Amino acid sequence: MAEITLNSLAHTYSDNPTKPEDYAIREMQHIWHQGGAYALLGPSGCGKSTLLNIISGLLEPSDGEVLFDGKRVNELKPEERNIAQVFQFPVVYDTMTVYDNLAFPLRNIGVPEHKIRSKVLEVAEILELSDQLKRKAKGLSADQKQKVSMGRGLVRDDVSAILFDEPLTVIDPQLKWKLRRKLKQIHEQFNITMVYVTHDQLEASTFADKIAVMYQGQIVQFGTPRELFENPAHTFVGYFIGSPGMNFIDATVTEKELSFGTHTLPLHPLLLKRLQDMDAQQVKVGIRPEFVHVWDGANDDAFLVDVDFVEDLGTYKILTFNFHGILMKARLSEDQKVPQGKAYVSFPEQWTKVYVNEFLVEVDHD
Amino acid sequence: MTKVENNKAWWLVLPVFLIVAFSAIIPLMTVVNYSVQDIFDPYTRYFVGTEWFKQVMTDSRLHDALIRQFIYSFTILAIEIPLGIAVALMMPTKGRGASLALILVAIPLLIPWNVVGTIWQIFGRADIGLFGAMMAELGINYNYASEPMHAWLTVVLMDVWHWTPLVALLCYSGLRAIPEVYYQAARIDKASRWAVFRYIQLPKLTNVLIIGVLLRFMDSFMIYTEPFVLTGGGPGTSTTFLSQSLVQQAIGQFDLGPAAAFSLVYFLIILLVCWVFYTTIMNMQKDK
């Protein structure tokens, strides 16, 4: 059981890094609390596997510290860290039976055989592998193999955290759901810290209580799936979470409002003041397709836009419209009237986010 | 839909059939032909049935050569396979060292058989050879030309030197094919170095090792050139192996009949040993 702290952690593969781009992990401060179910979500190459390998000790960070329960573990090897890791491709010991595979980590630390037996049987029961124990691991299917590699982490009493590195990549879609549920169940049962690396937002949000979104070696937001959806802290989060992603429009801050093209958007005075104080350049306005309001007729708030096309996705429709040369999307509910040619849209202030240099700018309302 | 019968496609097999016929079947049948006849000259020949086979089976010289041959093959397998694995495990995997090690290890494989014999013939001589001189320095009266044990030692050493690299290279390629993540998982499972070897590396090497053992068994069982050059089969008959006996019989004494019968038995022994070995390993690997 452990709380994992990343203290000013950074990592580079280069010998003499000069610019931020040289870092696979840019300096970060982060805490994974004991017993949490976390997801580390990000596109390929954002550094999430690197971060995971640093936590497990397969990689030593070039800068900063990794702390387990406040104790520095940088110099500890993975075998000394009491951590389990499940990899993208299932790792089983081919020549051993499923039973021996599960017993392996315990035998390596010299646990007496009768204790091993009860523990292995218990874990096999949970993972629904009881009837496979006598089989050679080589002949198992991919999902069973993955369960075995998970099981090797669960048999150990000393495991403080289990790290998953895209563990469901090679699993058939219909089994993915089952295994994910199993994971969730195990998490509730064992009260172990779990960090789950994935590039799939659905996987992340069904598994994790809190998601850390990684982008270019940084954790750009750490929050519940709902927070990531409603209040993306970075344009990347807006773009990456949600389907389709957030709409963004370049804007400039004027004396009274935010303007883009010939249109303007009123802002909360505090926010406007803050933006003016920042002398913000690179300003973007973001709004999720779900929150774009599509009106049936003209009104004072609505802009008139050209409809490009409408996609029917079954239970809802996605309207693509042209707003000052920028294609934007809006989500129409099933029973909503589909606009033809022209549409009236508005951006409710509550859901209109302002980003400066890609990061969200917020003020406390009320 | 009815299936179209077109047996003309069988003609496509003809080229392969011809090649195999000329490279294997016809020579083999010639040997079979010799083995059942007593031939005096191209026009005088008698069918003798299994007589040559009976003679071969009861020839004590051949029995001795066969035993020597088995001892020899199993000795070099017992040394070359573990040594090859050990060398492969020690070879560097990255950078310049890796290429350099590969080249160094591969060198013995590039040397022609008879040159290998010559190298060791000189190398083992006490007067001008480094190895012989070294043994002499150690106070051992080393002489492979007169001491059967020394002759054996030299022949085995020579084979180990010549062919361990093959096993090492096979294992090296097998080891490179193991994904890094297996080693990572093993570290997380707190596996000892031995456990990593026993449960990850060795199982993944099984296939290349099967090839290695089969190749080394067949080659060493048929070894001819190197001992012929090095010791000429001596001292006495102490390093006379099967193929040398065969050559003596066929070319030296021109006893084509017995030699042909002997060749067939020889061939069957190799086939049998390989088959037994292969099926045993394959059965061991089966999911119980």
UniProtKB/TrEMBL annotation, chain A:
Keyword NAD (UniProt): no
Domain of life: Bacteria
All residue ranges annotated as the ABC transporter domain in the record: 4-241
Protein name as it appears in the record: Trehalose import ATP-binding protein SugC
Alphabetized UniProt keyword annotations: ATP-binding, Cell membrane, Hydrolase, Membrane, Nucleotide-binding, Transport
Enzyme class: hydrolase
UniProt-listed CDD domains: ABC_Carb_Solutes_like
Record carries keyword Transport: yes
Signal peptide: none
EC code: 3.6.3.-
UniProt-listed Pfam families: ABC_tran, OB_MalK
Organism: Marinomonas gallaica
Gene3D superfamilies referenced in this protein's UniProt entry, alphabetically: 2.40.50.100, Nucleic acid-binding proteins, P-loop containing nucleotide triphosphate hydrolases
Gene Ontology cellular component terms for the protein in this record: ATP-binding cassette (ABC) transporter complex, substrate-binding subunit-containing
Gene Ontology molecular function: any one: ATP hydrolysis activity
InterPro entries, per the entry: AAA+_ATPase (IPR003593), ABC_transporter-like_ATP-bd (IPR003439), ABC_transpr_FbpC (IPR015853), ABC_transpr_MalK/UgpC-like (IPR047641), Mo/tungstate-bd_C_term_dom (IPR008995), NA-bd_OB-fold (IPR012340), OB_MalK-like (IPR040582), P-loop_NTPase (IPR027417)
